[in-house]
Amino acid sequence: MSDLALAGGAECHRVGSRPALGAEELCRIYAARVFRFAAMVARGNAEAEDIAQEALLKAIRTLDSYDPRRGSMDAWLWTIVVSAAQDAGRAAGRRLALWERLTRLPERSESVESIALDRLSDAQLLEAIRGLPSRDRTLIALRFGAGLDHAATGAAVGISAAAATMALRRALRSLRRQLEEPHEQDA
């Protein structure tokens, strides 16, 4: 069995005993972008690694079913990646709801002083993105993490380029508000 190391420590495996038939090429071309996307939509690094790995494995498993007449390889792959992220988000939400029911712990909040920002770091930006609703995280991650244009971003989530442009503007406006007043809702 052959393994390819991906960004973030995830791995891309050959499927069964059949030759990879482009799997290595797919991973070589897309792995870093898929991981950047996953890091932006996930709630943590471990979840991001799981999303990236699962998305690439799904793509490799279904590589034989890719039909260029139905759309570009990019659109096909990013649809799989977005689906894997949504699946992971739903599963994480169910786990969180179960955990909260079992533990019945009140939400913790930090003091305003402890969350004051001197300047915005990459980690703070990523944290702010992770605090957005799933759709906003997905749009921002496709556009800036994966480097897709508005048309490809829209295709990946099943909307037009114009709708993607407007949805991305709204997502960025939400991100800007969150960064300007990051924890006002906790106070």
Secondary structure layout plus pairing:
Blueprint: E1 3-5, E2 11-13, H1 23-41, H2 45-61, H3 73-103, H4 112-115, H5 122-130, H6 134-145, H7 150-157, H8 161-180
Antiparallel strand pairs: 1-2
Helix pairs in contact: 1-2, 1-6, 2-3, 3-7, 6-7, 6-8, 7-8
* Residue share in β-strands: under 5%
Helix content: 55-70%
Enumerate the strands of the largest sheet in spatial order, edge to edge or round the barrel.
1-2
Count of helical segments? 8
How many strands in all?
2
Element order, helices and strands? EEHHHHHHHH
Low-confidence runs: 1-21, 110-118
- Computed over alpha carbons, the radius of gyration is 18 Å
Integer tally of domains: 1
Mean pLDDT: 78
Tell me about the biggest sheet?
2 strands, antiparallel
Structural class, judged by helices and strands?
A: mainly alpha
Gross morphology: globular
- Straight-line N-to-C gap: 53 Å
Features:
single chain; 187 residues; mainly alpha; two-stranded antiparallel sheet; 8 helices; 64% helix; globular
How would you portray this structure in words?
The chain has helices at about 25-40, 45-60, 75-105, 110-115, 120-130, 135-145, 150-155, 160-180; strands spanning about 5, 10-15. With about 190 residues, the chain is mainly alpha-helical. It is globular. Helix 1 (about 25-40) packs across helix 6 (about 135-145) and helix 3 packs across helix 7 (about 150-155). Helices cover about 65% and strands about 5% of the residues. A hairpin with a 5-residue loop joins strand 1 and strand 2. The model is unreliable at about 1-20 and about 110-120 (pLDDT under 50). Strands 1-2 form a two-stranded antiparallel sheet. The chain has one domain. The longest helix is centred in the middle third of the chain and has 31 residues, at about 75-105. It is built from eight helices and two strands, in the order ββαααααααα.
